[in-house]
């Protein structure tokens, strides 16, 4: 995981005279030890890469995803040994974010839909699988093999469901889980209520107009009689 430390062990008796150790990353020399000349050192990124001149072990601190790759140590002592380490550094895994994919539009207010569409997302991830679960049952999933991409996965529900859903982001060493707040995210569009309010309001206006018309007519008749 990014930010961790990793140590590559050699299991070599460094006290043997004329021991030579080369550490390489993707065939590029990054550290070396010459016991005969009492020389040891790191050739790159000295703030994070350290070599133990007693054991020949290599340590990388504050790891990054760019540290992923093939490390090779070549040891020449009483025998020649070559050891290969295949390293994968995973990016920090964020907690998924769940949002409502569709909101109440003017059309949905007139004709409310019976589905609630959610979208689960994780941003800037690498080698991650994103999955929706109903309880412990897998519903759907999608994966990202590329580095630093955004990943999203939709889910369509019926309103007023009582099932327990969860969105899980996971890689080979860790997972992050988020449960949607269905009571907040899946509120039905209030189309029926709007229709009722409009109908009542329209009816009220008609009644008021009729009353005003009657009053005007009565006033006109009274004026005619007085004249």
Note down, in words, how this protein is organized.
With 227 residues, this protein is an alpha+beta fold. It has 2 domains: 6-87, Immunoglobulin-like (Sandwich); 97-185, Immunoglobulin-like, CATH 2.60.40. Helices cover 20% and strands 41% of the residues. The chain is built from 3 helices and 15 strands. It has helices at 106-110, 182-185, 191-226, and strands at residues 6-8, 20-25, 28-34, 39-42, 49-51, 58-60, 69-76, 80-87, 97-100, 115-125, 128-134, 137-144, 149-158, 165-170, 175-178. The strands form 4 sheets. A 5-stranded antiparallel β-sheet has the order 4-3-2-7-8, with no helix packed on it. The model is unreliable at 106-112 and 192-217 (pLDDT under 50).
**What does the largest sheet look like?**
5 strands, antiparallel
Order of helices and strands: EEEEEEEEEHEEEEEEHH
Uncertain residue segments? 106-112, 192-217
Number of strand elements: 15
CATH architect. name of the largest domain: Sandwich
Task: Please estimate the helix content.
Answer: 10-25%
Distance between the termini: 99 Å
Q: Return the CATH topology of the largest domain.
A: Immunoglobulin-like
Mean pLDDT: 80
Major sheet: arrangement of strands: 4-3-2-7-8
Radius of gyration: 36 Å
> What's the CATH C level of the largest domain?
Mainly Beta
The total count of helices amounts to 3
Strand content: 35-45%
Number of domains as seen in the coordinates:
2
Which secondary-structure class do the elements indicate?
Answer: alpha+beta
**Basic shape:** rod-shaped
